[in-house]
Amino acid sequence: MTLFFTLNHLSAQTIINNDPDVNNRVYLRTGIEPATMLTLGYERKFDVGFLNQNIVGFAEFGSSVANFSNNDFKVGGILPVFEKGKFKIVNNLNVSAGSMSAKNFDSKRFAAADEVAFGIYGAKRFVAFTAEYENILLNKIEHSDFYKETYFEDAVDGWYKGAGGRFQLGIEGGVTVKKKLDAHLEIKLPFTEKFNSYRGSPMHVNLGIAYRF
User: Fold this and answer.
1) Total structural domains in the chain?
2) 22 is in which domain, residue-wise?
3) How far is Cα of residue 195 from the mean position of the Cα atoms in its chain?
4) Which one of 9, 38, 100, 206 has the minimum C-beta count within 10 Å?
5) CATH number of the domain bearing residue 72
């Protein structure tokens, strides 16, 4: 179903690698995944003493531009798991909840995802390769009267086990201007769990801007 694949992704460009006095970031992102999405998000950096490391927590809300009933809310954390010079491996673990309204049904879904980015992170720019897996854990389906009258009158509404997951492989890059403004571009290729392509956009593209403070 379209909802399963209209999910947004946080970039590996975060405030982890910024001025130590900067702890917050707000961002706006738009792109095709495969629907045209618009996402607003917020990041907050935390010092985790026992890890001797900073972690960035985030929350974001995205909506389809064509239909605001199709939306997605996500929370998660971003943590560098390996660093050597400018080379970093950054992990992004998150959970999300989404809704979609269509002619045949209304749907809600809950998912969990993990993305790993391998890249070069400088003070003002970065480039990274990414690999992500997302699993749809649970769905709630409510069939419309039109669907029941036209196709299957005994269709059962309710909660269903998730319809599996997907992989995404991609590349992303970004620049920071005057230590405050970020610009970010990401391109990803989605696959099913069996590494088959699926209907919809064969490529996901996002462009984002952000302000650090």
Assistant:
1) 1
2) 2-212
3) 19
4) 38
5) 2.40.128
Question: What pLDDT was estimated at residue 155?
Answer: 87
Q: What's the CA gap between 75 and 85, in Å, rounded? A: 29
Q: What is the pLDDT of residues 33-53, one digit of tens each?
A: 767 889 999 999 988 878 778
The structure tokens 């890890």 sit at: 51
C-alpha–C-alpha distance, residues 163 and 126, integer Å: 35
Q: Determine contact, residues 191/18, Cβ cutoff 8 Å.
A: no
- Residue 186 amino acid letter: E
